[in-house]
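[audit] Reproducing an earlier prediction to check determinism. Same input, same settings, fresh worker. If the tokens differ from the archived copy the diff job will pick it up downstream; this log only records the rerun itself.
[audit] input (393 residues):
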Amino acid sequence: MAITGKDDGKRDGRIRLGMVGGGEGAFIGAVHRIASRIDDHYVFVAGALSSTAEKAKRSGAALGLDPNRAYPDFETMAREEAKRPDGIEAVSIVTPNHMHAPVARAFIAAGIHVICDKPLAFNLKEAKALERLLASKKRVIFALTHNYAGYPMVRQAKAMVAAGELGEIRLVQGEYPQDWLTTPLEKTGQKQADWRTDPKRSGAGGCIGDIGTHAYNLADFITSLDVHELSAELTTFVKGRKLDDNTQILLRYANGARGSLWASQVAIGNENNLRIRVYGTKGGIAWSQENPNYLQVSPIGKPTYTITRSGAGSGPEAGRVSRIPPGHPEGYLEGFANIYTEVAHAIHAARKGKKADKAVTFPTVDDGVKGLAFIEAAVSSSQKNGKWTKVKA
């Protein structure tokens, strides 16, 4: 389905959006394009949609792009779009991991806002270099699509922790099991499995980089606690696979809290079972991505109860990123759309030389640096038989 528009965005105020990656055969590119249009803040007008020029052109035609704006590579796209009076204002980067930083650098240098899929870069060194570059380009907005931070009940959980409703946080338990890589799927030529299990494109972490970072970011977003050090065991169960497909990590937080994180892509019977539980001195909360409209709350000495999205007890932090009444499910695409919409608020404010309202929240380059520091500390710890390792972002 083409989701471009005849209007170039100049007349109706929509943000002119481009994309690098996400062409035919890609999964996440379509998710980003749909998410960008749910609240109608963006119009998709340009792309370098594949690493090969022919495929990029074909993908652009399939999505209804002007042939002159279906570029053969991202360097040409950044250069040419920066020249146009109707050039893109923001770019979505949905390539394999090893291309995130090179693409981001090109568009940041061109003064174009960036919405990048996670992880931020191939390694921590690249991530910190991007952080420094952005510090010198203060007008460029950079967002990282840790999309679970966009779910209303995650916003509710974060608000409750910040308000002290759980008391001092003691325990943080996160997990993200899947089963899709239980067999050597990458050997069949399946595109998503192929690059995600290739250290030259995925980076030092397999499962930990692909989904472990989501669980890590979710805990960080909700609790605002910094991990001080960790002890990790990264395991590769599938014979011949080059990267981990299961990870188990113990966490020590700077405030004295303790945590654990389990992520797996070989846990049979699990689809996308991302869950988090947080416990403090006054109570606990539990949230599951597969049932995202419900937050379980357990006050000390009282029965556990459920807050539903847009229902009784749901606060303004959740309400501002909800669209429809309770009982009508909102999920993955809507959560993703909330990140895009939050970024749109920031871009609309930037057009006027202002900053967005304080309520506007989305993951940034800082979250990306934290994620790469987490991956590298975990890989290092595992290589040293689980030695406790500092997490240095």
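[audit] rerun output stored. Observation attached for the diff report: DSSP finds twelve helices and 14 strands in the chain.
[audit] end
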